[in-house]
Amino acid sequence: MVHSTGGTMRLRISGRFLAALTGVLCVASLAGCGSISKLTGGSQDSAPSSSRSGDDSFTKTFLSGGGTTGPDVDPSIFASQVACPPIEVRADTYLLAVYERGKEDDPQALKYQGSIRKYARECDRLPNGELAIKVGVSGRVVAGPVPTKGPVVLPVRIAVTGADNKVLVSQLVLIEVGLAESDGSVGWARVVDDIRVPAEGASRVYVGFDNKSSKR
Q1: Dist CA 99 CA 9 (whole Å)
Q2: Which H or E run includes 120?
Q3: Burial, 167: exposed, middle or buried (Cβ in 10 Å; 0-12, 13-18, 19+)?
Q4: pLDDT band per the 50, 70, 90 thresholds, residue 181
């Protein structure tokens, strides 16, 4: 109710109106708090007990490494790998050209030509500490203008060097390839798995044709 006295306005609020206004403000305040709680996710104190128990269960499972019924982790997966020296083919040994005797470098006297196309190596540590190296090499043989009867022999040398390019192992592998006149081209491959070198010091593996052995 509003009263005017001497030009001054006074506002008189009854007790019943004040109580009603207070109730409205409280309801609005609670509604606002509920909305903020939904947006922020609430605090741990305001979260339901079922939600808290679920979080605790997940935390315990996570910290303990998961459930007890899961598969075991194989420790060998995380075992350190055996260091293996890099492998390469020297620039002047990836091709092998065989000519008729006395007619070297004459294209019309070429009997066949071999090439190395792929190569790889794999290492393993032996019980005595030595390094076992398995080497795989493959390529092709192409027939030349001069007919070649019977199989041809490719002399492939595998060498392992150490510090200061010192040769630790050098092994000549003779690979027989059947090349008939009608074939024209044939692939070949060989895996050598009996190379042994000292445990430390192997720095590089070389593969290539031994051109000296091909002169026959």
Answers
A1: 126
A2: strand 110-125
A3: exposed
A4: low
pLDDT band at 48 (very low <50, low <70, confident <90, very high): very low
Cα separation, 137 vs 66, in Å, equals: 46
Region for 164 from its dihedrals, namely left if φ exceeds 0, alpha if ψ lies in -120 to 50, beta otherwise:
left
The model's pLDDT over 147-166, given as tens digits with 9 standing for 90+, comes to 887 789 999 999 999 988 89
- The first and second tokens of residue 31, run together, are 């509604």
pTM comes to: 0.60
**What pLDDT, in 10s, does the model give residues 132-148?**
999 999 999 999 998 88
Torsion of CA 97, 165, 161, 113, to 10 degrees: -10
- 3-state DSSP assignment of residue 144: coil
**Which H/E stretch holds residue 160?**
strand 151-161
At a CB cut-off of 8 Å and minimum separation 6, what does 133 contact?
A: 84, 85, 121, 122, 123, 160, 195, 196, 197, 202, 205
Q: b/e map of 124-153 (b: 16 or more CB within 10 Å)?
A: eeeeeeebebebbbbbebebbeeebeeebe
